[in-house]
Amino acid sequence: MAKNATRSQLTNPNGTESSIDITGSDSTGKIHSGALNITSVPKAKDTGGFYIMPIVSGTMRVQLSNQEDGEYFDLQSATLDAYLGTWIPMKVKKVISVTTATYQIGW
């Protein structure tokens, strides 16, 4: 890097580097409040999943992009609180259930 160059990086809430590059979203950033399946978002399906940005905290049960049917991952309110307004660095193929949380998706 040149002597006077500046480096930029994305960081997650705890300050560690994050490498999420969002290049698309559904309905110009629609806010979701319930279940969502990748099959209803064709462009996200083409990329193998989508990322979640929590807008309002709560809890969520999701299926990660490489999990089998019947497997799930629970996002607790502490995690959603920590990532409010930022992308959670995990690729999701299905939001199974949501309690009080709202979110946006991107891929």
Structure described in brief:
With 107 residues, the chain is mainly beta. The protein contains two helices and eight strands, in the order βββαβββαββ.
Q: Can you put this structure into words, describing what you see?
A:
- It is built from 2 helices and 8 strands, in the order βββαβββαββ.
- The chain has 107 residues and is mostly beta strands.
- It has one domain (21-106).
- A hairpin with an 8-residue loop joins β5 (59-64) and β6 (73-75).
- The model is unreliable at 4-9 (pLDDT under 50).
Q: Which structural traits does this protein have?
A:
8 strands; 10% helix; two-stranded antiparallel ribbon; mainly beta
Given the C-alpha coordinates, what overall shape results? globular
The main sheet comes to:
4 strands, antiparallel
Strand content: 25-35%
Q: How many structural domains does the protein architecture include?
A: 1
Question: Rg from C-alpha positions?
Answer: 15 Å
Low-confidence spans: 4-9
Number of strands: 8
| Structural class determined from secondary elements | mainly beta
Spatial strand arrangement across the major sheet? 3-7-5-6
- Output the helix-strand order: EEEHEEEHEE
- Average predicted local confidence, pLDDT: 84
Q: Span between N and C termini? A: 30 Å
Fold blueprint:
Layout: E1 10-11, E2 17-18, E3 36-37, H1 42-46, E4 51-56, E5 59-64, E6 73-75, H2 77-82, E7 92-99, E8 102-106
Antiparallel strand pairs: 1-2, 3-7, 4-8, 5-6, 5-7
